[in-house]
Amino acid sequence: MKKLFTTLSNIWKIEELKKRILFTLSILIIYRVVCQVVLPGVDPNQLAHTEKSGLLGLLDMFAGGAFSKASIVALGVMPYISASIVVQLLGIAVPSFQKMQKEGESGRKKLTQYTRYLTVAITIVQAIGYVKTQVPQNAIVIDPATFYIISAFVLTAGTLFVMWLGEKITDKGIGNGTSLIIMVGIIARLPLAIQQEVNSVFAGNDGGLIRLVLEIVALYAVVMFTILIVQGVRKVPVQYAKRVVGNRQVGGVRQYIPLKVNAAGVMPIIFAQALMFVPSALIGVFPKLQDSWLHQYVDITSLTYNLTFAFLIIAFTFFYTAITVNPMQMSDDMKKNGGFIPGIKPGLATSNFIDEVISKITFPGALFLAIIAILPSLAIKVGVQQEFAHFFGGTSLLILVGVVLDTLQQIESYLLMRHYDGLMKTGRVTGRTGIPAATGTTGAAL
């Protein structure tokens, strides 16, 4: 505890870090306040008992409840994330976008601008669909046609405002702004989830306090397991040739390429979850399908649902890793910088070696990701309330762990640059001492 207070004291001694943390907190508070502002022309009392499930429930969780409240920022940053994914995929498939990715800062600015334009287009479409399908008619207190037009503009402006807040956090705050906004939305649901679980545990005759303690211990173990997966890397050694620059000798040192066990991040779960919502959507449109085999995919605790879900996650993990991690580019970058993997010839042999290593570590990473994804279903099966069960795994837990680790890593960097101890005396956040990395990308969204 003394170590913690000393570290917090050190944080406040660094003026720049203190300003960044306070700026980030102020922006997040502004976002949470705006989430409570309802669309003009909507009676909030008619929305009090509106609950979202399935894909809509996932969107509501990411928006911190703003989706179900018909807030002016109901769509949150999801349109921006969708646009970012599309631009990222275009950077792999379209030569002109590939060229922009290689142009450095100027190319990055162009891609950012295209992402913003695409965000506006996606938001307008989603805003129209949202006000048409998610706002009850009895909640609209003005002329419906006027309401739809005004709401489309307001929702679009709200998403752009949230996107701007995220960019400000990234530029002047601490951590990734978009990810922090999503994380705050998820955490906003935690108090209600805990309250529901406590009421449920003490209302029944199934263990009371002992059961609650066991659930907390299980949640702690799941979080530790998730951290292990998020931070897991396979370090491939890279040797750099010695060179003489002026009167100095540079190079000749051994560094590492940190290949992540879970290079795809949370995207496989999001893609798989989107597909798993298709059967319930079809049943909603065609009620006669309720008695068909599709009904097995409506119950998220069923064996069929979870096996299919796990298989899709494993498949999407391999797919997304293949399109985001480019062994050939990593090999070329090493060759240009005079680097080589000991015992492996530069060029094609290096590319094949990296590809083989990625293939070997991707399967266990995909398997562990699938286990994390189905843990909420298992928690519901043993009696945990659905709202609290979402924190036992899945998208929400991966986002929380990833964002917290990334933010801690940045704070650690500020402390260590000023020769202060980091946040933890033992162990480390990945990147605390800096893993020397050869050039290459293993990016993952969110």
TrEMBL record:
Q: Which UniProt keywords apply?
A: Cell membrane, Membrane, Protein transport, Translocation, Transmembrane, Transmembrane helix, Transport
Q: What is its main location?
A: membrane
Tell me which InterPro entries the record gives.
SecY, SecY/SEC61-alpha, SecY_CS, SecY_dom_sf
List residues traversing the bilayer.
21-39, 70-94, 114-133, 145-166, 173-192, 212-233, 264-287, 307-326, 361-382, 388-408
According to Swiss-Prot or TrEMBL, what is its membrane topology?
A: Multi-pass membrane protein
| UniProt cross-references to PROSITE patterns, sorted A to Z | SECY_1 (PS00755), SECY_2 (PS00756)
Q: What does this protein do?
A: The central subunit of the protein translocation channel SecYEG. Consists of two halves formed by TMs 1-5 and 6-10. These two domains form a lateral gate at the front which open onto the bilayer between TMs 2 and 7, and are clamped together by SecE at the back. The channel is closed by both a pore ring composed of hydrophobic SecY resides and a short helix (helix 2A) on the extracellular side of the membrane which forms a plug. The plug probably moves laterally to allow the channel to open. The ring and the pore may move independently.
- Summarize the subunit comment: Component of the Sec protein translocase complex. Heterotrimer consisting of SecY, SecE and SecG subunits. The heterotrimers can form oligomers, although 1 heterotrimer is thought to be able to translocate proteins. Interacts with the ribosome. Interacts with SecDF, and other proteins may be involved. Interacts with SecA.
Name it.
Protein translocase subunit SecY
